[in-house]
Specification:
The chain has 323 residues and is mainly α. The chain is built from 13 helices and four strands. The protein has a four-stranded mixed sheet with strand order 1-2-3-4.
Length: 323
Amino acid sequence: MTPSVPPAIDPASAALVAAYLERARVEKRLAARTIALYTLDLDKLARWAAEAGVALTAVQNQHVRRWAAQMHAGGRSGRGIALILSGWRGFYAWLGRQGLIGANPVQGVRAPRQPRPLPKALGVDEAVQLADYASGTDDPWLDARDAAMVELLYGCGLRVSELIGLDIAPSDGALRAGRGWIDLEAAEAQVQGKGSKRRAVPLGRQALAALRHWLALRGQTAAAGDAAPALFLGRRGTRLTAQSIWQRLKRRSLRAGLATPVHPHMLRHSFASHVLQSSGDLRAVQELLGHASISSTQVYTRLDYQHLAKAYDGAHPRARRKP
């Protein structure tokens, strides 16, 4: 049986797609990888339109809904469909600005909702094991720095970007650059979070001790320029990057004997989960994490429920099954 040949994209549609992609490349200066993905998604759109016998400018809302359903039935994830629809929506918004369509056919079309995965968090014992780890053989300078980083990530729930942006003290340069700083006297970290929102995060006793130990050794490596006020430096005197923190944390967690390599956001999740387990105060956890919406924080209630369910299964007589 001869396989069916998909209909060819009409020249007018191909020209519109090419013009949009060129505009995205030149005017919006999108990355080559992004342009390549847009090209694939718009090619898919143009071929489905050709199969339906409609020009790209004649595509209707019901067409887009049917194609989204086809992608879902074909196993495409909700996130993948949402990204494709976003690209299509931008293309039709551009056609509208050119006066080529009256309404955006992708408007109002949403990808199927995916179950939100639970964040990965360490158990309390594992988190403490990582925080208390001391190599004894490593460079004391690196060990003190990494210990202070762990205390701020787990003890304060900072994002890695917030950790990188910390300075040793407030300054006009820090304010202009949107960076945060450490205030040891007030026992708090002033951090610059998402949306350029600042918040004060309390520093616990262990975090303060780790920071003072690190600051006593930090001056052994000279830093200049923008890195001069940075709280966390590399051996070359430059401000640490997110990648270097990921690598150091992974190395430290494995050497501390943890079964799973730890990344910075796992410590933020652990902070939120453990504070919620102890306090039950969702609003306080929201403030500490710097979440704009309480819905972002509510995911940790599911982790808390898992903790309670395990405790019930292990302790309650009615949960135990007879052999």
